[in-house]
Design a protein that fits this description.
heterodimer; A: 525 residues; alpha/beta; Aspartate Aminotransferase, domain 2; Aspartate Aminotransferase, domain 1; 2 domains; seven-stranded mixed sheet; four-stranded antiparallel sheet; 13 strands; globular; B: 446 residues; 12% strand
Chain lengths: 525, 446
């Protein structure tokens, strides 16, 4: 046993097991935490409120008299509960979060500060226009940035998330078809096999049917096959560009032209706009509608699954159908067009597709995104796109000695691998991903896109330093070697160092337990 | 640029490893004439400059806390404990993704499980999902769910439903060429919506308290719906009312949709908010949105996962129940933290403080000559009828620093019958001095 000069032990004994059980079940900084329903007092509260004066109620004899059943926690209990829970989460602030297609980049805290200014955070959505000019100015300024970056003439700001933006875009297409008297005949939407699941789901939600466009062997839309599918029953196409394989659709102009010639519209899924922002204007590529994930490209925090924000840019052909409300600038003052009737007075805007949400969209994300854009400027936005593409290609180049890229050549902002390098190792993509957790990384996107076997889609983003990327690549190379060296058992068991081992998702779905219920008192014997 | 870690030497070295001569070699698939387009946009700014520019815009707005404030109609000013904002700004919550890797996302998953339990309890229902974008989109999703369950294509919307909620629902149902019947706005809450339900009705959507503030008894509507094989969708835009008013579940609702903003989330000019969505156990597989469920890990320890994802777009694609792929994660965290602090005891007390503030405000304003309080019942929001077009009055008061309420004309621009109506909300944030100022200014206003 190694001792220092004071005779104290300087390192743990080799035989001391790392997974030795503890009395509490805690493991040093990993503290087990019960549910609030097990911690809290059902008669308690963590807020100090004055006693309401006893007066007659005007609730129309509809008082809630039965118990609700909610515990109250004191402030220290509350703080401890959520801090302990937080320590069971991985986060972009802790390390690389290379989820392809999800774009986990740094979330600047300036943006949080701006969004919390009382003039924005404490502003009611139905404040009279004269008292919210600054908020309308934010929306208008963000519109200006988005229109210029995309080269599109209009943008609908109200969609609440990317999928909601898709809905907005496809609804605009449907409204345009209705105006042309072709809504009943143009009912088919074409989307690549590699599309995000939201694309077909959105098209169906808009009353369309969906057919899959095959991919060519380079991972892109098969142009000839697409042309064969086009016809008078096609409403439009939904194509992601750069696509979900992390590749730019080289034939994008030809695709757009063919669709337009056939009388359809081109919906571009803008999930990967971050790869080309400040470099390429989608409007130059023939796009009719594209949603922009402010939470991806413009770095509003993902927040553990939302809130997102999905403003949707529209071409001249679709702009008249934009949803209400929207902001206009008249005689130096900003105003809101809130209804179809008011829109009618605007002339062309009479055809608005309607309303997508109660108010004006995700204002809290608008302030953050605008702060991000102003901070980056055009130069920073273009540099961010370049760095994102550079980082992905660096990962691709460094990993291809041990892992198998799905396609030849350079990629855009994400590097896609198949599972061929794991053939006959007994290790599957999911095992490889779970082993990354033990190495301190969030796994990459797995099994997507569906067109690549055992897909692993790595999107490092521009936020990673070279040093961080090197360490990440070294770790993945080491895992690939270990898989090939026959250490499948290690992979199958992973993760072993996370707050939980693999969870039984099948059991969760078979007999769903979706809420806590009070323990049933054991019947007296 | 302060957000980008790579320097010129890194970039050069990395290009060498890649084997590319210049960065634009990596963009070779982009049509050459479209690459490096011209943009008319400014260059980057320092933190100070950005803060200054956006601070100037913020200063042009009248914050709710800046003076007497009585706006509601789907968004409410409530006090948010300091703890809430601290917790939602923790890196591990703020900068995490959707919890697809449950082993390293138990923090998010556990609070979602707790959130679902709280929401189900508040609504008086059996199950709740992990949240929707907001109340209005949740309302539309409820109508879509009802048409799946009932296999019918007609929705009846109460005239007391927030007109923006009605518009969002109509926009979504019209995509399927469904029939949407919207009853005319009725500030007294006396409409006989039950009589409108027929054998083709998939759902009837009723807000409680309604947009004018009236408290409805949903039980007879639920009975009528059930008799005809239709679902009752109950909408609640003021979540604090769950602490005072009989829950929709107790009154027989099949789906409960609510705007959760009031608990834990700031007004934020309309978003992001958090939609609450609850229903009966038997409909759980028809629900839209994310669901978190309990399970065990390989060592038998309790843990949580996203579940029933076979309803969702990433698995089911064109057969999904909805295209939704996010919830309102961080807003649901704010909700559940605030709710954990309140507990049932705190919520009930807070609700009664709101009711008391509204009663005081109604008494004061109702005493102004010419002003009539329309409601027989209300929680923290009620409707005034003025002898004049209220938009001018409200704007005049706003110019004097009093945000007096939402004019009927703002919500129903097509309906002249609502021109003289002013919908007034009063929460625990309203002081006696605020009420007095409002009353005085209102007396002077016409």
């Amino acid at each position: 046993m190694a001792m220092n000069a004071q005779g104290r032990q300087t390192r743990a004994d080799a035989f001391a097991a790392t997974d030795a059980p503890t009395f509490t079940g805690n493991k040093a900084l990993q503290i087990e935490e019960d549910l609030i329903f097990e911690i809290g007092d059902f008669a308690g509260t963590g807020v100090d409120l004055p006693e309401p004066a006893a007066k007659e109620s005007r609730l129309g004899d509809m008082e809630r008299t039965s118990a609700i059943g909610l515990p109250g926690l004191s402030e220290p209990e509350t703080m401890r509960h959520y801090v302990r829970l937080s320590q069971k989460n991985y986060a972009i602030d802790m390390g690389p979060f290379p989820l392809g297609s999800c774009t986990m980049k740094h979330n600047p805290r300036l943006n949080e500060k701006i969004a919390r200014l009382p003039g924005f955070a404490d502003l009611h959505p139905l404040t009279p226009e004269a008292q919210c000019q600054g908020a309308l100015e934010v929306i208008y300024a963000l519109e200006t940035w988005l229109k210029e970056l995309t080269g599109m003439p209009a943008v609908a700001m109200s969609p609440k998330a990317g999928a909601h933006g898709e809905l907005c875009g496809m609804m605009s297409i449907r409204a345009a078809l209705e105006a042309r008297g072709e809504a009943a005949t143009r009912t088919r939407v074409l989307a690549p096999e590699s599309a995000h699941g939201t694309n077909p789901a959105t098209a169906v939600q808009c009353g369309f049917t969906v057919d899959e466009i095959p991919a060519d062997k380079t991972g892109r839309v098969d142009l000839a096959a697409l042309k064969d599918m086009l016809g008078p029953d096609v409403a439009g196409i939904m194509v992601t560009n750069p696509n979900t394989c992390g590749l730019f659709e080289r034939d994008i102009r030809a695709i757009a032209d063919a669709v337009h010639e056939a009388g359809g519209y081109f919906y571009c899924d803008g999930a990967n706009f971050n790869a080309i922002a400040g470099k390429v204007k989608p409007g130059d590529l023939g796009v009719d509608a594209m949603h922009i994930n402010l939470h991806k490209t413009f770095s509003t925090p993902h927040g553990g699954g939302g809130p997102g924000s999905g403003p949707t840019v529209l071409s001249e052909a679709l702009a008249p159908f934009a949803p209400v409300p929207y902001v206009v600038l008249e005689d130096g003052a900003y105003a809101l067009v809130e209804t179809r009737r008011a829109a009618k007075e605007e002339g062309e805007s009479a055809k608005s597709l309607g309303r997508l949400t109660a108010f004006h969209g995700q204002m809290g994300m608008f302030t953050r995104a605008l702060a991000y854009m102003m901070s980056h400027g055009l130069d920073g936005i273009a540099q961010a796109a370049e760095d994102a593409v550079l980082n992905a290609n660096y990962v691709l180049a460094r990993l291809k000695s041990e892992m198998t890229p799905a396609f030849d050549g350079y990629c855009m902002h994400e590097a896609l691998f198949n599972d061929r390098f794991l053939k006959d190792t007994g290790v599957e993509t999911i095992d490889f991903a779970k082993a990354m957790i033990d190495e301190g990384y969030h796994p990459m996107t797995m099994y997507f896109p569906l067109v690549v076997h055992g897909a692993m889609l790595i999107e490092p983003t521009e936020s990673e330093s070279k040093r961080e990327l090197d360490q990440f690549c070294d770790a993945l190379l080491s895992l690939a070697r270990r898989a090939k060296a026959g250490e499948a058992d290690v992979f199958k068991a992973a993760p072993v160092h996370a707050p939980r081992r693999r969870l039984d998702e099948t059991a969760a779905a078979r007999k769903p337990v979706l809420r806590w219920t009070p323990p049933v008192a054991e019947a007296a014997e | 640029m302060r957000y980008l870690p790579l320097n010129a030497a890194d970039r050069r070295q990395m290009l060498d490893v890649i084997g590319a001569g210049a960065i634009d070699d990596l963009f070779a698939d982009v049509p050459a004439k479209s690459l490096n387009a011209d943009f008319d946009l400014p260059d980057h700014l320092g933190e100070l400059e950005v803060e200054r520019a956006l601070g100037r815009m913020a200063a042009k707005n009248q914050a709710a806390g800046a003076g007497p404030f009585f706006l509601g109609c789907g968004a409410y000013k409530h006090h948010i404990p300091a703890t809430v904002d601290h917790i939602i700004q923790r890196s591990e919550f703020l900068t995490a993704y959707t919890p697809y890797q449950p082993e390293i996302a138990q923090g998010t998953l556990q609070y979602l499980f707790e959130f679902q339990t709280q929401v189900a309890a508040l609504a008086g229902m059996e199950v709740a999902n992990a949240s929707m974008y907001d109340g209005s989109t949740g309302c539309a999703e409820a109508a879509l769910m009802a048409r799946r369950v009932a296999r019918r294509r007609k929705a009846i919307l109460s005239g007391g439903l927030h007109p923006h909620y009605a518009a969002v629902t109509r926009t979504n149902l019209e995509l399927h060429n469904d029939e949407v019947v919207i009853a005319p706005p009725d500030p007294t809450g006396a409409e006989d919506i039950a009589a409108m339900i027929d054998d083709e009705t998939a759902c009837v959507i009723v807000q409680n308290p309604d947009v004018f503030g009236n408290i409805r008894d949903l039980a007879p509507i639920a009975e009528a719906a059930q008799e005809k094989g239709a679902l009752l969708v109950a909408v609640v835009t003021e979540a604090i009312s769950f602490g005072a008013v009989k829950s929709p579940g107790e009154m027989g609702a099949d789906i409960v949709v609510a705007e959760g903003q009031s608990i834990g989330n700031p007004l934020g000019f309309g978003g992001p908010y958090v939609g609450l969505f609850a229903t009966r156990q038997k409909y759980v597989r028809q629900m839209p949105g994310r669901l978190c469920g309990e399970t065990t890990d390989a060592e038998g320890k309790r843990g949580f996962v996203l579940t029933l994802s076979t309803r969702e777009q990433h698995i089911r694609r064109d057969k999904a129940t909805s295209n939704i792929c996010t919830n309102s994660g961080l807003c649901s965290l704010a909700f559940t933290v605030h709710m954990s602090l309140l507990g049932e005891a705190g919520l009930r007390r807070l609700a009664m403080l709101n009711h008391e503030a509204a009663c005081k405000t109604a008494d004061a304003l109702g005493a102004v000559p010419g002003v009539e309080v329309v409601n027989q019942s209300y929680f923290n929001e009620f409707t005034l009828r003025l002898p004049t077009n209220v938009e001018k009055v409200a704007n005049a008061l706003a110019d004097q620093g009093v945000l007096a309420g939402v004019p009927g004309g703002r919500l129903w621009p097509d309906d002249p019958d609502t021109e003289n109506l002013l919908i007034v909300a009063a929460t625990e944030c309203v002081t006696d001095a605020d009420i007095e100022t409002f009353e005085t200014k209102l007396r002077e206003a016409f």
